[in-house]
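Quick one: co-fold with AH0.
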Amino acid sequence: MPETGSADLRWAIGLMSGTSLDGVDAALVLTDGERIAEYGPGLTLPYDQMLRDRLRLLLDHAAELSGTEADLKDVERAVTLRHVEAVTALRNMVPTIVPDVIGFHGQTILHQPDIGRSWQIGDGALLQEQCGIPVIYDFRARDLDYGGEGAPLVPVLHAALLEREEKSVAVLNIGGVANVTLLGPVQDGARQVWACDTGPGNALLDDWAERHTGVACDTDGALARKGTVNRGVLERLLDSPYLKRPMPKSLDRLSFHGSAMEAVQALSPEDGAATLVAFTVEAIARTPMDVTPDRWFVAGGGRHNPVLMDRLRSRLGNVASVDALGWDGDALEAQCFALLAVRYLRRLPSSWPQTTGTRQACVAGRAVA
Ligand SMILES: Nc1ncnc2c1ncn2[C@@H]1O[C@H](COP(=O)(O)OP(=O)(O)OP(=O)(O)O)[C@@H](O)[C@H]1O
Ligand SMILES: CC(=O)N[C@H]1[C@@H]2OC[C@@H](O2)[C@@H](O)[C@@H]1O[C@H](C)C(=O)O
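Sure, here it is.
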């Protein structure tokens, strides 16, 4: 824990809107960028259905966009203003705390690390002007410039929170896409950290559930629970070169979309859901890893799906929600961008060759001018 009076400690707000397109997560923490000294509140402000639909349309066509389209600018403004609302709501929960900085991820609409491109929409200048707090944003660009994947960035937070854990541990984040941070055992006071996106998280299952039930996700695994995994379809889904690639590596929300939806198309809603859950779990289990973790901890919305969690347990063994560590598994990504903002202010690196493939340790982010 940093000293509470340390000059480097700042109250930072982190804002993350993930690939599930469900809304804005916001969290307040007191941090020096190396450790979390105190947790403030966290919240989620959902996007309304119209904004979700407009974002989904952008995401589906992002590769064809130039960035200057009026509709894109309009959606970007709406996304930014929703973030302003999230900051206001968070500040109202703790009116006596004056935040020093905001870490603003933005909404990813395209991620193509193979051509050095990762596109997050969100107007940092507008957010700064509306909130009256300095904003750090554009967290993935420099890592991509250094030949990295630009993702995942959350391993720096996982490693900081688990610095006292001596054994090898894996932390999974199962959002729209799933990613893992693998912490090697502590040896001579040091440890190795690896990371990657493992494969789909909930995004395929969300789309499948929406198509068959009209609801945006398979709530509590209700569909998947009644289904049977189709082994043939599962093996076809798993026959992807991505899953055999070593870490580090990263994915776009739509990376598996076309082929996976085609593969499950003929299945019943229940069997399709069960098979997609098994795909998420099996992609995690088959991720090439240099060490075998003693324990697995799960963050992100996927940990609310009991069918997914049961399957992870029976496949991997020692699996628990990160909440068992006293963490808030819904706020973790937002907390990460608060930490990253302070790391930027202190010019501390946030990604490394083993976490993103960057050529050198890399300071993430950019300040609004
Ligand atoms: N009760 C529940 N039952 C089943 N699934 C749930 C439940 N609650 C949340 N989820 C899943 O969690 C998802 C949201 O997870 P999360 O907020 O971690 O994603 P994200 O942050 O948008 O994505 P990413 O981490 O990829 O950026 C929902 O889309 C849904 O699939
Ligand atoms: C490009 C992008 O937005 N990637 C997200 C996405 O959601 C999960 C996974 O894919 C992860 O790589 C990343 O987010 C987290 C916060 C990260 O960078 O660690």
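If it helps, The mean pLDDT is 96.
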